[in-house]
Specification:
The chain is α+β, with helices and mostly antiparallel strands. It has helices at about 5-10, 50-55, 75-85, 105-125, 135-155; strands spanning about 15, 25-30, 30-35, 40-45, 60-65, 95-100. It contains five helices and six strands; from the N terminus they run H-E-E-E-E-H-E-H-E-H-H. A four-stranded antiparallel beta sheet has the order 1-4-5-6, with helices on one face. Strands 2-3 form a two-stranded antiparallel ribbon. The protein starts with 5 loop residues before the first helix and ends in a 9-residue tail after the last helix.
Length: about 160
């Protein structure tokens, strides 16, 4: 199998890990399934609290997805993802998702995959256009009656129509 990650691999080859455990495709939507081979995971040391664990163990996980060269994404999906995720996609067309919340690499790996699925689902979701409707004759009549009642109440408070002093 030919490696498609040539530009990313130039960064730091010691921290690049390909999926070697159980490979299962990721089902994002019924019409979009991403094979595990299209994802690349990098690990690094996380920042923040955690004591010696933070300095010694590479728990931060970065998921890299080459959107430009993935065969699982259709042209229309690719265009929509570029439009919606323009700030998250690099010039090379690589989507990067990072997780460092958990203290273990496996926990962060699970979280980063969940976040990746969530990001793609949100970006590919298309809201239905609102179909303009008219108010029913009854609702217009009720609204106008309530306005008339309210108007009468307020008129009754004035000296001219109600209480004479």
């Amino acid at each position: 199998m030919r490696n498609r990650w040539t530009q990313c691999d130039l960064l730091d080859k010691s921290r690049v890990y390909y999926t070697t455990h159980e490979t299962m495709p990721i089902v994002v939507l019924p019409n979009l399934t991403i094979p595990d081979e299209d994802l690349k995971f990098e690990t690094g040391t996380a920042s923040g609290p955690g004591g010696q664990n933070v300095n010694k163990v590479e728990t931060r996980v970065t998921l890299l997805f080459d959107l430009e060269h993935s065969a699982s994404v259709t042209a229309s999906q690719r265009a929509r993802l570029h439009e919606q995720l323009s700030t998250r996609i690099s010039k090379d067309g690589i989507l990067r998702v990072v997780s460092q919340k958990e203290r273990s690499q496996s926990g962060n790996r699970r979280l980063v995959v969940e976040r990746f699925i969530e990001i793609l689902r949100e970006a590919l979701f298309v809201e239905r256009k609102r179909r303009p409707t008219r108010a029913t004759r009854g609702s217009v009549r009720r609204r106008l009656e309530q306005k008339k009642q309210r108007s009468d109440i307020k008129k009754g408070r004035s000296r001219r129509y109600g209480r004479d002093a």
